[in-house]
Amino acid sequence: MDVLSAGSMRAATAGTVTLDSSKISSLVDLKTVLVTAAVTLVLTPLIYMVARRISIFLRQNVRMWLEAALFRLAKWSRSSLARRVSLKEYCRYGLGNPHTRFLQVPGRDEAGHLEADRAFVSLKLENGAASFVYSGDVTEIQDMSRVRVVGDPGSGKSSLAKKMFRDACREAEAIRPGHRLPILVELKRFTPPKNVSSDKTMANWAVKFLRDHVAKVQGFDMGELFDSYIRGDGLFLILDGLDEVAGSDYLRVAATLRALSGRLASDSPHNSVVLTMRSQFHSQVSDHLEADFPPVFHVRPFSPEDIYVFLTKWPHYAKDKRAEILRLYNNLTDRPTLREMCSNPLVLAMYVSHDQHGAKGVAIDTRTAFYSKVVEELLVARRGRQLEMPAKSLLREQRETIFGRLAFEHMCDPEQAANSLSWTRAVEVVAGIYRCGKKEAEQRFRDLAKETGLVSEERIGESFRFIHLTFCEFFAAKEAAEGRTHGWAELMTAHRAFSANPDAFTASRLEEVIPFALALLPRARRVDALRELSDCGADSLVVGRCFLETQLYDHPSWAAYAAAESTFLAQTPAGSWDGVWLRRLHLFNVVLKEAEEWLTAYGRRPRITLENLFRDLVQDDRERLIQLFSSYAAVDVPAAMRLAAATGVDLVAEQPGLVVANMSYPPLRAMILEMVQTGSNPSDELILLVAEAGLRHQSAAVECAEEGAPEWLTDKVNTIDARQAWFKRDVVLWRAYRPSLYTHCLSWSVELARKGAVRHAVEFPGVLAISGVPAPGRFGAGFFFSLPLFFATLAYIYSVWFVFIPILSSSDVHGNESGFLARMGIVALTMIVSLYSMDLSLVPRLRCDIYVALVNLPKRGSRNPKRIQKVPFETFLFDTLLITIPVRISSFWLRHFSAPLLVASRNLERELPRQLRPRKRLLPL
């Protein structure tokens, strides 16, 4: 009974539970149905109404919106496309225009002009501490809103203006970010009408002038192109030659430039203006432009290295280019004052042009003849071409008279500081020649300074100066020889007076004037004048320069001068070989060389030769010889090399360290490379010198790597085992190690070092450092390391298709756990093998990069400094290197990254790949 009761109770309880669940379910379903019905009855009409309203609104407006959007898109695309096409057409015209494409060389026709891009030498623009070198990157100067560029006549202002315009055209043609519309205007053609007087009308006229200047180029709506840039990305306006504006128009032009500057600033902050003028003219008008063009950059003269670079870029050599470059530079080295004058690009261009082709067939072989051509060019000819006026002999004579009289009086007056002349006296001379009043004479002299550029005002109304002291000396000599009846006598009287008073420190004041004057004298008077100069006991430097300028080596005083100078140089103790003694030695060397050529041409035998001179100097003492050339090299390395070559002294063999230390100097490097290529001195010391110079100076390494090896050097290197060679035929990965002069010199130098056949070993630490490094010749092309990557990739693809896909498609994964784990193990192993294979495949590239850095060659891609590599190759390789070493594959790595390679890299202070710099202690060196 109890059992039955219990069962009945359980049954009742179960029934109750089932009943209650059913009730709850039915109640929930009913509530859901009621809510859904209410929402449907209430919201559906509302949703329908809203949807209908939206549909009507869209039907009414979407079409209009779409048409407006398409219209704006079409207008924008047409405008953008038209602007791009117009800009490219304008830039092509600017780059192809002969006026901007070529640089004019005085004395040559159009066929002999220089291409601006090829002949341009980087110019240094200086503004106190804010100076920079312009070499083609126009962005830096464009970022300056307003700039004045000033310089002496022929300093390269117009060449700089053309180069900046062409560089800006290339930037704009390529649509590079930040580009602007370049415009080059010669200010002599930028003259506003006289009825334009207010700032607003001046600005409007100037903008219209510029717009018309752009619109004259044939293209699609060039005027619209100008309008879009002047208010948007900006103009890059280059205004060249403010000094060429006529004096009567200057005030209006200056006012227009100021108004234009304000207008451009208000139109767009990206508008940039560069204004060029002569420094002589700038000193007169600087106050007019100070507020609107505040920064002033001065063009610096060429350095000796710039002179050499210019010679390398000259395209019209009549003979062998390298030999002609060295000859011209050596000629300038032998005449320091001429080299200093050739720091002016115009003078240097004239010098090279006259040397190669001559002016109307006339060759120039003396300094006096060349200066005469330069002065004539600056006095009348060049300005006449610029202003399109014919040169007149009367005008030249007037200007020569003015400058000559002032220069002669100045040089003969010891109370005046050198090249600081009296302004008052200049006004008096001009007034006397033109027969005018003081005010007019002052204005005429200022105009003369502006048009010739030969003089500039130092202190307003007080003093002026010639652009170079040499011009002052030349005009003084011309006045003494041609402008005065007793000019030579007056000059000699002044020289005796200066020499007689040593306490006044004026003995050398006329030492450059006298040689010029002697050479400018009529030929019939030169013999007596030279005799008078010798009898008065003139300084040997003056006499030597007189023989150079006159070439009177058959004069009776020549033998006495040569004997006296030789005795002085030979008897001076080695401890007294100072700068003065070295200058006298250099001058006497040049004079003896030219005298020997002249006497030989006339069938005469020279009594004193360079060999006799240096035999007396050295006195069979080798240490004395080394001291001689070491002292000379400290003053002028190319001159020391020239002097050594002339006397049969081999500085390469005797003082290789001295030569290597100066191989970064391009002229000296050219002399050494010429010796290598011609085989004039095919010695092992020369090969060692080139290799060591490349290891020390990257400029030498790059230039030698671009030179082909001469035949005599190739024959030597062919005797070396190919595995010991420092060059490879694989030009893809080992492009830097292709056969070249540099790699051949490295190969033979390392071979000498391994054999212990290096003389003066202490002078070649770089060669000794790499002599223990495995040569690149023993390494393959990298194909061996690519094979693992190839097979690992195949294995990975196989695992994806035959492992991953079956796993993902399996429906019974949990029922076969052992099979699943086996497949996962295979996948993990495949991934590890692929990782190490990729790691090893990168070994050839890393090894090649280390070898390139070892021999001082630039890394791949270093020619583009703006390129930013966000994820460098070395970062990835460093991670794989950390994974590789712990699993004991370091022995494989060390076979290819040997300890000698890393040691040599550290000894040469090379910048190794970064994964070897911080973790190189991990490698058991």
TrEMBL record:
Residues 147-314 form the NACHT domain. InterPro entries: NACHT_NTPase, P-loop_NTPase. Keywords: Membrane, Transmembrane, Transmembrane helix. Pfam families: NACHT. This is NACHT domain-containing protein. Signal peptide: none annotated. It comes from the Bacteria. The chain crosses the membrane at residues 32-51, 783-808, 820-838.
